[in-house]
Amino acid sequence: MASNPSLVMRILSASVAVSNRASNIIRNVLTKGDLGIVEKGKNDLQTEADRSAQRCIVASLHKQFPNVAIFGEEDEMTQRTLSFVNKPQYGTLSSSVPHWTPPKILELYDKNQNLQLDPQETIPKDFIELNFDEEVLKHTCPEYLKDTKDEDVVIWVDPLDGTAEFTQGFLDHVTVLIGISVKGNAVAGVVHQPWFNFEKPGLPLGRCIWGVIGLGAFGFERETPPPNKVIVTTSRSHSDRMVTEAVEACNPDEVVRVGGAGHKVLLLIEGKVHAYVFASKGCKKWDTCAPEAILHAVGGTLTDFHGIRMNYSADVQRKNTGGVLATVADHGKFLGCIPEHIRDAMDKSSPAPELDFKGVVVCGGADLEKAKQNNGQVSAGKSPSPEENAESKSSSDKVPNDFNTKL
């Protein structure tokens, strides 16, 4: 039972627990060998692992937090999943329509606002995870989140980030993403790697990284990025001329092409790359909410190509049409490297609403005009340390002094 009175910490604790179960489900699908691949669109695949993992995550979190908004990548499946938790063995939903009802969910209700259950729909009992991760609950909730209410929260779920790589056997690229936003701001997240250590027999398989802005990030070891070079990561399976041109404009010494937004941000926070550059409108809110929260928890920055920190409210458009730029330092310099015509091709994102962080310093958008004046110079060997980067920012755009990752 969750003893921590904070709603955000209880949701995060439940998310860590259910991410472990979802990862087991994903591994089991691969072991059985029938991936059940469906092509949703160009370069956009869905597998039985995606569908089953989302059933697990959405049904479990909805059962525990019935009045909190949950949005997942597999939208139609999410709508069906809501009926699963009304089965007698799992209890019954409130008779009133939840405030977070996504589009078309209302079609599942009758005139008395009761869910119309499909008797043919079933969900295995072992898909439902109602436990909490006790390690998360041991931590004190940051002051600015203590009074968070159900209606303030939106949970963004990508049940299997890196589906293309999953189908091609690049298992270390795969992650499960559960992001938590409060009043439109990404504040906490879970990134679970089901196959971490899969090439190292004898070591535990899988790992879970989680973090909260104002508390820190946990579950990984951080290293300092190489000081004598610039390493950029970008998409492996969703590349085009514009994506390539934006990366090349940063003058990288090395480009690391991998799958999944979650995996790319993990490379950042572990100190293996300096920046994640993706000049495309294809990334979505469930791809970036959890990674952004964890990156900001360790002092990094994630914005669109206009330097805008994104809005994760329930009514925001799902696509990140402004592109994605993420860094652990020198964000303004990388932003200034992006050619003007590429920036002009990207939309300006809806900015994250103002939130009273009560003294917690949060990385925001970079100073784009200042970056332009400096000609966007990103020089190998000149990237400041996180502490130096914090000192160089204005009082409204500093990284936390306590930068060290907590394990």
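The record above closes out task 2.4. Task 2.5 opens with a second protein, given below.
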Amino acid sequence: MKASHTRGGIDARFDHPTLVSQAGLVPAMRLAQDAGLSELADRHVRLGGSIGANAGAKIASIVAGMVCGADSIDDLDVIRHGGLPLLFDGIRAPSTLGSFLRYFGIGHLTQLQHVAHGVLVRLAAQTPLLPGVDQLAFVDMDSKTQQVHSKKQGAAYGHKNLFGLDYQLITLGTPLAAPVILDSRLRGGNAHSARNAASLLRRSLTTARACGATGPILVRMDSAFFNGEVITEVITAGAWFSITARHSGNVTAAIHDIPEPHWQPVTFATPIRDQDTGQLITHAEIAETSLTVLTNITRHPTGPATLRLIVRRVPITTPHTDQQPLFPAYRYHAILTNSPLEKTQAEACHRQRAGSIEHVLGQLATSTLTHFPSHAFIANAAWLILATITHNLLRATGCLATGRFARAHTTTLRRTLITVAAQLTRQARRTTLRLPTHWPHRNAWLLLFDRAHSPPPLQH
């Protein structure tokens, strides 16, 4: 492809008042309105004063900017261009929104979490967001240190020697659905992964039940979250857990005591990547035994527990040589669980965790959480909660477009469904969005638009 004009034969002007570059914001924010985003914000978020007034309009403006891809306060100005003020009422300027975020106190974060939980529950009820959630649900918990390059409140060097802010994240997914975010919490950069994890998990499991997870729930975590308080919360909520086991002395001894005939060969239909070597693995062996853990009463007052220890072992091979090893050597990957699933199914469910919550963390890190925008810690904590609302809204938007968009990366959703140019025309008191011809995702966009603007279901 090459230009069809000469260098001097073309001009450019920013002077059209009815053009918009984010036409997908129309169905997306209609969906947010039906989920009660502004209504819940006005009801729960009470900051007081003129800066904290009209919380619903300000929170909706921030979420709209994030849907368009804003990763800083200045970027929120994207919602004021062209004809967007003709399509939406109550748009606020970035300076107003920045002052609003900095006005938050620690108690207001809980109010904002109530908004996030309410919006997610309504989205799950109004859209096919979580198919099969009543059959089997996966709740994943993890933490991430987001690197920052300037001095911000709470920033410190964490366990990965990164200078930044740490946050916990809990997601809800099913075998058929891409995960949505149940809850989040911003912490200092040097916070331990499991600090206050039990209380966050308790709140998240309550939200998961409200989203329709009435059947079995499997909570998947890495070894950093293995402690008696977290295990107690999972069991109290009537859920199962699956936790990566540390290779401590008792775990290693239990693995070596497994009789050789108990190892069952398995073949992976889709090769998996070894976390230590990076090699693709198609064959492994799986075995099961039991292990009594949490025996230190001082650190774990709830007392010891006997759990299933499921182990996957992979032969250690020497590449680029024909020499046979003198004796077999293996790399072991163990999990502790109380689920009744068969051992190969339990191991497979836990292994899929990396492709679930890790993808969500990656999507946030490349969009709304590319960096934290404020010097104030509480403002950044509020920004994190709003980013989770935006993620869930985009997931619901993709589900209404169906097909591959139901599980697509949020970057793909923005590129194909949100960032679409349109010209506004108005005739007989009816506004029309005139979109580009031959848009490759025309059918999916129109399906999303029609479903978002259909009458909401009757409330009984």
